[in-house]
Amino acid sequence: MSPKRGLHLRELNIPPLDVxxxxxxYTSGRYYIGVPEKLSPSDQGSVDDQLRTSPFFVSRDIQIxxxxxxxxxxxxxxxxxxxxxxxxxxxxxHRLLIDAGTVxxxxxxxxxxxxxxxxxxxxxxFTSYVHNVDGxxxxxxTDSRSFGFAAGGDTIPxxxxxxxxxxxxxxxxxxxxxxxxxxxxxxxxxxVV
Length: 193
Known about the structure:
Layout lengths: L17 H4 L9 E2 L6 E7 L4 E9 L3 E12 L5 E9 L5 E12 L4 E11 L3 E9 L5 E5 L16 E7 L13 E4 L3 E2 L2 E4 L1
Antiparallel strand pairs: 1-13, 2-9, 3-8, 3-10, 4-7, 4-9, 4-13, 5-6, 5-8, 9-12, 10-11
């Protein structure tokens, strides 16, 4: 038996992706932010030196050639590092698949980096970012898939995995992290080849 390289959807008893939004038929040249693909009209502000990730469910193998963010609130010296992690056996980010580098977030608009990576499905990956300064606001996605509730009776599920990380090269492995509450997470766009 070969070693596991990431957590599979069936291991988490997650229903097939067609339950979420129809069988994902990835279209070449289009961008995806994960399931569900519903954007918020506002930004999700972030603080510097917080590495944050959100789940990205892949139903089948896809090749990605771009990773990007839509900056809604810029900061004069802003820079944001982007990357993708594979999930570990615990369903949280583990092995760094790619540290894509940085985008300039000192101005608003869509910013992207050219990459070359294959995501193997069905599997969960984590799109990740860290800012160098406070106050950068990225377009967010709503109704993000959650990591459950911290306690019975809670009303806000965990949807963001984060850890303190000084801006710079992304850690590999991800390391100890916490699941943060919230319904929205920043939208990290991946373009399918």
